[in-house]
Request: fold
Amino acid sequence: MKFQAMLAACAMLAGAAGLSAQTLPPPQNVLQLQASGTVEVQQDLLTMNLTTARDGADPAQVQAQLKSALESALAEARKTAQAGQLDVRTGNFALYPRHGRDGKINGWTGSAELVLEGRDFPRITQAAGRIQTLTLGGIGFGLSREQRAKVETDAQTIAIERFKAKAGELAKGFGFAGYTLREVAVNASEPGFMPRPRMMTMEAKAASDSAVPVEPGKSTVVVTVSGSVQLR
Reply:
């Protein structure tokens, strides 16, 4: 009997909780809105991709040739490397078989890549011009972490001020004295951040140590503040 009484009590409590949840009044005088802040800034990050390809019947020989070309390029690039100004890293290194019409392997093809990236454009382009074992495969521009963080802060400030002003104007327009913030979300995006590759042919780079000419563009950083306010 005690067990049955406990079950009955639990059922009554569950029913009361369900009834209470069903009878909660819906939110009233809640306004959904969003505002954005946009800042355009000069791109300060340069990425240069240097590549080379080799082909031959012996995979070990092709790999050795790629390794030698990459090591030589690395040694030259490291001479003027400096953190943040000219960072050097290896990219793709691939070796794969080449098949004939009969489906059998008749040779091997490989490629290697070196990436030069940083904020010191002259240092990067001059280093690329001195490298003779790789050729220019692509150029891209973007924003450094420091620049992007600063611009996002500026755009966020603009977005927040616009959100507050918009909330106040709408509250007044609906006949309320003001508002209180219920919830808010902040999102940042940078449509112009992805590098725009400029592909060049293998012969595009002259066999000299002259710097490769480059010209950056601009990136647009957008911060959006969205949420809801309680009109009062």
The domain at 45-142 is CATH 3.30.70.2970 (Alpha-Beta Plaits). The radius of gyration is 31 Å. Confidence is low (pLDDT under 50) at residues 192-208. The longest helix spans residues 145-173.
